[in-house]
# Entry
Amino acid sequence: PVLAQARSSGSSRSLFVPRACSLARLAAGVGVAHFVALGAMPFPFCGRRRQVSEPEVRAGNDDSGGSKPPSAVAAKEAFKPLSRAEEAAADEPNACRDEVSHKSSGSSSAAPDRDAPSAAASTPEVEDVGSSADDLGWVPAADGELLRSTSFKTAVEAHRCMSRRITGGKSLARILAEVVIDDEEKEEETPSLRVQVRFDEGWKDVAESEASQICDQLENEVYQFSLNLRGHEYAFNFTSYTNASQLNVKTGKRRRLRILDAPIVEEGKDNNSQAPSEQVLEQRRLGPQSKRGGASQHPIGKYLEGNQHAQGCFREFEKNEAKYAGEWAVFYHSYSFAALIYEVHAAVASVLFRFRSQYAALPRILVHEFHEIPDATTLLQRFNSEFADNKRDHHPAFRKVGISAMSSLVSTGPEACTARVFVSGYSCKDVGFLNVLERVLEALHVPKDKVTALAGQIIKLSEKQGLDVSQFGGKPCKSQKAGHLMQIFVKRDLVDEIVYAAEPYGPLDVERMPVSRWCDSDASFARGQVRIVAHPKLFMQANCVRLHVASADPTFHRNRQKFQEELIQLILELSDAAGREEAATSIWGGTLPSWWSAEDQRRQS
# Structure
């Protein structure tokens, strides 16, 4: 009945209707009868966990008909582990992927230790690894797929859609929990994009009402139009988003225009001055995600035995988990030869968008590639309708926006063990990596006649600082340990926006959905993959996503900050203020961040 009521409301601008319906279709698409997205929704359970009854779930509802987030106590009960005998009886073998081979570094720590001490006998069985997590099928095509083709329509639509979802203050989990819909409830006001005009003294905002009229035209794919504003007729030309203009018809005066995003998430808000909520306090009490549910910590000792550097990296990750447990869920993304591409992304984002590249690399940067798949729900829709029978999560369109990750430092499956793959990471062997690097540089608006030379300089710099670039025509790292591990913290109220629980190859793991509820529980995270929509607009905001990275090679791990500084200098030498604005507009997808200016943004990060 609730779903029917939602459909009958017919509001094309409503966040509730398309997302709720899409999740219902997703559940039907995987043939899971018990996954009811709305109304009397049974509390989802994780794998072999007890399902909570409906009265227990509804106990969290408030008097207004809305629903408060379930308490951590209820969540803990929901994910109460079964007995060892029941768990063993429920185990099923998981097939290994074989589409892309896993490149081993040859280090003994990258393979199971058959002579491990008896203390490791209780370590959960680790499944074989055989797949690429960074096969680089997502990089821009050689011809015609650069951001220069992005239309203002898609940029405006994408911003307004994201603003309604995130600024509205409702996460997907909260929406799923609502069981009463007021058809006459006023739609929450969507922050407007800002349109600016270039005067002699600098950029000035046009009035919000005028900006709204301009953006309405662009959203309707009208790029040349006239408007009467403040008693004057202006002709607007948005056929080029790097050279948009307005013309005063009477005086013939032409001025440049640009579009800035409204802030999607409040920036600079000091949350430390506020008392933590009960939910945050409970999450802090539950502690680090990798240690919840009595998860065995043996995989770290077993697979990193004798590797003091790797053990130190994992200890730092453990400290981060303890520090951020209250407000952040955590995931782990393993990669190897794609590291150079990620590092280039980070350097560019540092200069243009205030990304804190000293802490981590950046998996994706081209915002326009997220216009059609901005969130986890949309990615799942596309997976079921398009990718499930066509390369699954190896489909280039999936990989352009999605990355694979595990949910714990001690994850043992399915398919991968976080500690085991750290040394060598994931990669594939059949990619022309040098060509990939050059295509990425071109997509980042490096002048075409400078791309080849810059690629060569970057490879030499990588060799100097110890980054393995053997697949780019350079030298391998001396340790032969090419793996990297990215620690990804996602604000708990954004988890369902960009993360979904996945089976190997990317299908939905319904029993762990909504994934935020699983992450808030006291379940063991020793098993469980996810897929993350690595949206640059969120990954580059430290109040949405926080990243840390560790490299298996001690030399590069030690030199990484110096590497970033020198890489940034190489990039800065090829740009001036005008070039940076054009590149930023292109990378950001046709608009610019609300705070953007042309100077080096590292000073503001």
Summary: The first strand starts at residue 194 and ends at 199.
